[in-house]
User: Fold these one by one.
Assistant:
Number 1:
Amino acid sequence: NPTPTPEIVDIHTHMYPPEYISLLSARDTIPLVRTFPSSPDPRLILLEAELPSLERALRDPAAPLPGRPLTKHFTSLPQKLSFMARHNITTSVLSLANPWLDFLPASEAGPIASQINASFESMCASSSSHSHPGQKLFFFGTPPLSAPAPTILASVTHLTTLPHCRGIILGTTGLGSGLDDPALLPILHALADSHLPVFLHPHYGLPNAVWGPRSAEYGHVLPLALGFPMETTIAVARMFLAGVFDAVPALRMVLAHSGGTLPFLAGRVESCVAHDEALAAAAASEKGEKRRRRTVWEVLREQVYLDAVVYSEVGLRAAVEASGVDRLMFGTDHPFFPPVGGQGDSEGEWESVRLNVEAVERALGKGSEEAGMIMGGNAVRVLRLFEE
Ligand code: 5CU
């Protein structure tokens, strides 16, 4: 009997359906899509850190192009399926890429979310009719966070009716004030009750001033390598300090980029909590209460999963140490980080994918049971991928 092909599941992989690209093409503030005479592909400009280069390019046709090329990798389902085949990925859990629907006016967010979520459902349902047999697609839905709470709750209910939905993707701003906002609790309860895990993903980074006056010389490195992970770390630390995990114990979060820097900084967070006079006094007055405050370490092992998009075995080992090998799930971040320069073309193997595969193999042993859990087994279990 031939050995069965191991299941490789990509839980961090994005797309923009056509409706979303139309929205961005009609905008003149970020996020937006713009064409430039010197570029064959339109440019996708998403991040605050890309504003200075957008302004320069609009003034000066010879200036470097802002943002990233909007290639078919962002929008085309056949392109996604062939990327999966090229990297032996059997199942992908798609999500809308940042900044999701955060920028929509309240009155438009609900109907647009329904449309986008239906579009993802139909992509997943139709994938079997494409040319790569055996590939499966699921998705994380997008809630209309700028809409009134009843509309957001209705969207959560809608997502529970879509057979390929396995959770939601969420940015760090929540309803506008962050994820420690008490107004978000009913929504987190609804997600937990519906068994929809939250895939937490950064977008806003840190304020541009942090990167200094020479930031343009460093391209996208500082906002993406450092701003994104710090944003995630801060958002989860705020949830932890506000007691959100204790208030919604059935909530399950999947943290992008292996939890930002949380596995590395959890000890420091704990120590700062233990040495804060006000928090220590509050903890002492709660001593009689039945439930003691759980530590960040406990939350990491009880309510949090981490993706394995960390590009090195050092970071991956820290993530495994913090959350457990049964809580990490492979991802690619496709279509971001395509090959550039001498790395080959975007139809070949992607260096960014190879780095994440190698990190798992180096940290846990190529072909080991633990590596198999991270590459697919955990996602199949956690996200119920055997259920159609
Ligand atoms: O390259 C980038 O800007 C990004 C982004 O915006 N979102 C993401 O998920 N990865 C990379």
Number 2:
Amino acid sequence: RHRFWETQPVGQFKDAGRGGLPEGPIEPPTALSAVRPEPYNLPALYEWTTCDMDDEQICAEVYNLLTNNYVEDDENMFRFNYSKEFLQWALRPPGYFKAWHIGVRVKATKKLVAFITGVPGRIRVREDIIRMAEVNFLCVHKKLRSKRLAPVMIKEVTRRVHLENIWQAAYTAGVILPTPVTTCRYWHRSLNPKKLIDVGFSRLGARMTMSRTIRLYKLPEATATPGFRKMELRDVPAVTRLLREHLSLFVVAPDFDENDVEHWVLPLENVVDSYVVESPETHEVTDFCSFYTLPSSILNNQNYSVLKAAYSFYNVAAKTPLLHLMNDALIVAKQKDYDVFNALDVMHNDTFLKELKFGPGDGQLHYYLYNYRLRNALKPAELGLVLL
Ligand code: MYA
Ligand code: JJ1
């Protein structure tokens, strides 16, 4: 059924439920001298290219490929529209490798027609901290689909990851592959219900009018938690302590140090927003929340071309109730003119989703590990990882 994935060191569907196999790496690492030194072969018309994301020209080519060919919803009404600034942020974290930003060009015209990336990260699985590649932005131009290019790209990124002596990876996908660590649901909180309904993102509920709907989703003008403010560079040590403590509660979670927090959590205009609660009495940072900005192109609408979406990232409610913290996150997202606030049912998110009027979406997100077996699938609430 999966001609490619059946050949890879991932949990296989046929091994499900037997519970006999041990947890941990599926294959041992090999000597670096045994890693294939030359790139895999592409069909004759195509060539490999390493995409230098510092180069604005190349960044624009990647942006254009993804804008026109990346992930859509099941009815092809919306397509992810990652910004150039977002791509540079996502692809250049501490210790990144340029060689893991892989493109495919048409030899004759040099047109960029496919892309895949990895970035390095440390991910903890139960007690063990494992160096992994986080693989994302796999994309093949619409005109080149179903030609088995994706398996070659996955093998090539794997080879380049192995050359750095890294043997595991984490990735997410909207499709079912062998074998998910867990399957999460997207939830959506309307901030601009009229636009969401006009573009077909949501529907008027039964026995609801537009004005009742607008009233239902209305939020206060200002945040409510005393000491709630934008995160600053000086907050990195405190936020790192809060986040490390919080992530220790989950079975699979990133192992973030201060450098990682500075990169992944410190606010970056139109890319990632983070807020802390600084106690007005002690001036200690007691809580924080964050979301990233990922607009979607609206396909085939006369009035609107972009849906502005915020995605819940990492949130730690150590003193303020999580419900209050996330309500303030919704308020700032509304102030900043987002149309919708999205969240997965990971970590403790299921404790605020219904209460804060999120509704379940029609999309799922499956999480995977490469070359690492878990005895059982996890519940979404046992997962402490958000990939972009
Ligand atoms: S998920 C986002 C993926 N991108 C999109 O959905 C954008 C729109 N779609 C496309 O661009 C194409 O449809 C893609 C497939 C490129 C997805 N992950 O070339 P094909 C398998 C993994 O003929 P195409 C993200 O970015 C499929 O089951 N495998 O198909 C994370 C089949 O294999 P098998 C996928 O449609 C990516 C084979 O590919 C996916 O032209 C993580 C068919 O190839 C998918 N999303 O192209 C990648 N979709 O026969 C894995 C299809 O066995 C990383 N397939 O069923 C693994 C870790 C690597 C590093 C390891 C280091 C140690
Ligand atoms: O955004 C998504 N679904 C929306 C739009 C559906 C349009 C028709 N298919 C949705 N809207 C309902 C919102 C409503 C608001 C009021 C309360 C009730 C709910 O459900 C979905 C997620 O739900 N998104 C996608 O399908 C995009 C792809 C998701 C897979 C992503 C793969 C990621 C790649 C990883 O690197």
